[in-house]
Each structure stands twice: as structure tokens, then as C-alpha cells.
Write a structure and sequence with these properties.
Blueprint: H1 9-38, H2 43-61, H3 65-79, H4 83-106, H5 108-118, H6 123-136, H7 140-155, H8 159-183, H9 187-209, H10 222-225, H11 228-259, H12 264-300, H13 304-340, H14 344-352, H15 354-376, H16 380-405, H17 407-435
Length: 438
């Protein structure tokens, strides 16, 4: 039986911490994008960049399966000692990403029409947003292909390379933002050009970081790359993850939509508090990614002991992190709310639900880590099915709790969905471990 290296606390932290730091660069870029157009002294450019970014982010999110599927399949090939398949997986991921991005470019007109139909804006804002989108859309192939590059690097536990890639791409984006908008006066188009250049250069840097794969002849072995058995596996894994992600998104989107029935103030409070959940996810991402890589490698090597220890240590550290995050929310949550909004009524309303928000990371850590473990093991059918069951449980909880307890009941239903995801996947975990011995 092959071994994939000892799983230690140092190994888990070395894999996780660069991802946590990398995630911290994402909101910084968003703040700079908003800040530079804010210097133009008008509201419309800020709204245009915001809406344009939301539309493209929504389109790209559909292809988020590429990052997760690539990590699971590549880590298993690596654990099994299949160097050729590791290289071939990178080529497949790049081809899927580039083709998906090209599809967005070709279908941009109907896609943007749909985006503006769902997010209506004034004539001025929509006009500026269309200018922004008409530039940024041309980097869609690079942006989606980077998902595959990132997944491939995570599979090999090269998360410092992921950090380097993100720092390069976001750092260049910020510098170009400042130059194009404040220096050259290009306005909204300057923000778009900055992102366009940053994403294509990011793909170039990503390929350089993956250069070891191109030393293997398998990276252009088209017979291997287009092997029907492998392709069916890739399609099945990615399809299951996409369906699972759509159902997860349905939970969060319905939560926000249903909150609107309790009034504008409550809706705004929910929006603010959802940022707390996003921060928790950023903090946990690194440990979930560590679990993906270690579990995938262990499964590929048929090493049950390493799989169990990797899952246990990553989960241990994630639990430590969420306890700390929850404590921060309880102690400093009020201050964070005040930073996010100046509206007195929204501040008061958000504070009412702060204890539930502080409890959310603790109740959700099981689901979050098991997602990572199951992605590494490519047990994506279980992920899909358990998410469907959790969605039903969430819907029942909304129907039961919300009419009685109002927005408290809605938050309760969301927390129930976190627990349901963790429990249902937990029940499938023993079968995952047994698969490591076959």
C-alpha cells in the first residue's frame, strides 16, 4: 500500500494558512474597485461597477465546480502515483475553463440582458455597466481557467503558489485601477481594463507555477486526455458538484428573498449579517482545502489511516478557528455592524440576531469540513444527494418556524440547514473511509 506522507499539524497549517491569507486579498480588491470610482464624485459609476461585477461573478460562480472537481481528481491521481494523469488533469481543466469562458463571450448579449433583467438599474448606471462588461467579458476564459489551475495546485498542497497567484493578480489589478482611473481618467472602463489585464496575466503566472506538469508528455497526450472513461468521470464529478452548489445557493438566495417580507430594515440587517458568514467561510476555506488535498491523496494511495488522520486534524484546526471567530462576533460583533452600516435602525435590528450569527460557524463547521473531505474523495454523488435532503429539511424548517418566529425563525431554518448538511454527510463518512481500502 502506497503512503502519501505523514499528516502532521505543521502540514495541515502549511496548506491552510496561505489560503486564508489569499482570501483576505479578495475584499481588499473589492474595496479598491469601489474606492477609485468613488473618487469620480458620482454615484452612477459606483453602481455600474457593482452591478457589472455581480453579473460576471454570478456567471463565473456556475463554473466553480471546476476548482473543486480538479482538486479531488488530481489529488487522487497524485496519491496513486499516476504522474501522467496528474498532468493530463491540468490540461482537461484548462480546456474546460477556456471553453466555458469562450461560451460566455459568445453568449454575452443574452446573458447580460438576463443579468440586467434580474438586477434592474437606471439608464445611466446600466449604460456604464454595459461598457464595463463589454471589456471585462473578454477575460472570461482566463478567469474560469484559473479555477482549474487553483484546484490543481491545491491538490498538490501547493497553496503558497495559490497565494502568490492571488497576490499577483489582485495586486496588479489594484495598481492598474489606480493608474487607469485616477491617473488616466478612464473611469469605469479603466476598472474593467485593469481586471481584464490582471486576469489574463494571472493565467500566465498560474501556468508558470504549474510548469512541472508540462515536463510530462501526458499533458498533450490527447488519447489519454480524451479517454472516454476519464471524461465520464470528470463530467460526473463536476455535474454533481454543480447541482450541489446550485441547491446550496438556493438556500442562501431564498433566505435573503424571504427576509424581504419582514421589511426593508430587516432585509438590510440580514444583508449585513450575511457578511459575517462570508468571513467565517473565508477563515475555514484553508482547512477545507487542506482536507481536500490530503484526503484525495490518501484515497488514491488506498491509505485509510492517513485519510482519517488528515480529516481529523483539518477538522480539529477548523473547530479551533470557528470557536475564535464566534467569540469575536460575540465580543466585537456590534462594532463590526456599526462599521458596515451607519443606519441606526439597521444597526439595532442586526444586533437582535447577533447571537444566532455567532452560533452559525460552530453549527456549520461540520458541514464545511465534510464538504472538503467528500470533494477530496470525489464522493460527489453523496454530496449531491445529502444536499438535496438538507434543502428539503431547510424548506420544512422555514414553513414551520418563520410564520411563528418571523426573522428569528428564518435564521433558525438556516442554522438547521447547516446542521442537516453536517449530519447527513457524517452518516455517509464511514462508507468513504471503507472506499480507501478497496
Amino acid at each position: 500500500m502506497a503512503r502519501v506522507g505523514e499528516v502532521t499539524h505543521r502540514r495541515v497549517l502549511a496548506t491552510a494558512i496561505p489560503i486564508v491569507i489569499s482570501n483576505a486579498t479578495v475584499p481588499i480588491l473589492g474595496a479598491v474597485d469601489t474606492g477609485v470610482v468613488g473618487q469620480l464624485g458620482e454615484a452612477a459609476p459606483i453602481g455600474a461597477v457593482g452591478i457589472g461585477a455581480v453579473i460576471l461573478t454570478g456567471l463565473y460562480w456556475v463554473f466553480g465546480f471546476l476548482r473543486m472537481g480538479t482538486t479531488g481528481l488530481t489529488s487522487q491521481a497524485y496519491g496513486a502515483g499516476q504522474a501522467g494523469e496528474v498532468s493530463a488533469m491540468l490540461t482537461r481543466a484548462l480546456m474546460i475553463g477556456l471553453a466555458a469562458g469562450a461560451g460566455i463571450v459568445l453568449l454575452q448579449l443574452p446573458l447580460f440582458w438576463l443579468g440586467f433583467a434580474l438586477s434592474p438599474a437606471s439608464v445611466e448606471v446600466e449604460g456604464l455597466a454595459r461598457s464595463y462588461l463589454s471589456i471585462r467579458v473578454w477575460s472570461a476564459p482566463a478567469a474560469i481557467a484559473i479555477y482549474g489551475v487553483t484546484g490543481w495546485l491545491i491538490a498538490l498542497e501547493r497553496t503558497r503558489a495559490v497565494l502568490l497567484l492571488q497576490v499577483w493578480m489582485n495586486g496588479l489589478n489594484i495598481v492598474l485601477d489606480l493608474w487607469f482611473v485616477l491617473g488616466l481618467g478612464w473611469g469605469v472602463e479603466g476598472v474593467a481594463f485593469a481586471t481584464f489585464l490582471a486576469e489574463w496575466s494571472g493565467l500566465g503566472v498560474g501556468l508558470w507555477l504549474c510548469r512541472a506538469a508540462f515536463r510530462q508528455p501526458a499533458w498533450h497526450d490527447w488519447g489519454r486526455i480524451f479517454d472516454l472513461v476519464r471524461l465520464r468521470q470528470v463530467m460526473a464529478v463536476n455535474g454533481d458538484i454543480m447541482l450541489r452548489s446550485l441547491m446550496l445557493q438556493a438556500i442562501f438566495m431564498s433566505f435573503l428573498f424571504l427576509g424581504a417580507q419582514f421589511g426593508d430594515v430587516t432585509l438590510a440587517a440580514n444583508q449585513v449579517l450575511m457578511q459575517f458568514l462570508a468571513i467565517s467561510a473565508y477563515a475555514l476555506d484553508g482547512f477545507a482545502f487542506a482536507a481536500e488535498a490530503i484526503v484525495g491523496q490518501a484515497l488514491g494511495a488506498r491509505d485509510r489511516a492517513t485519510l482519517r488522520r488528515g480529516a481529523a486534524l483539518a477538522s480539529l484546526w477548523s473547530t479551533v478557528i470557528v470557536i475564535g471567530v464566534s467569540a469575536v462576533y460575540l465580543v466585537a460583533g456590534g462594532w463590526l455592524i456599526d462599521v458596515m452600516t451607519t443606519a441606526p435602525q439597521v444597526r439595532i435590528e442586526a444586533r437582535r440576531y447577533l447571537p444566532l450569527v455567532a452560533l452559525a460557524p460552530v453549527l456549520g463547521v461540520g458541514a464545511f469540513m465534510l464538504d472538503g473531505i467528500f470533494i477530496g474523495a470525489t464522493r460527489t454523488r453523496d454530496m449531491r444527494n445529502m444536499m438535496a435532503l438538507s434543502l428539503v429539511i431547510y424548506a420544512v424548517a422555514v414553513v414551520v418556524f418563520s410564520p411563528v418566529f418571523g426573522n428569528f425563525g428564518l435564521w433558525g431554518a438556516l442554522l438547521v440547514s447547516f446542521v442537516a448538511r453536517g449530519v447527513t454527510l457524517g452518516l455517509r463518512y464511514p462508507a468513504l473511509e471503507r472506499a480507501a481500502e478497496r
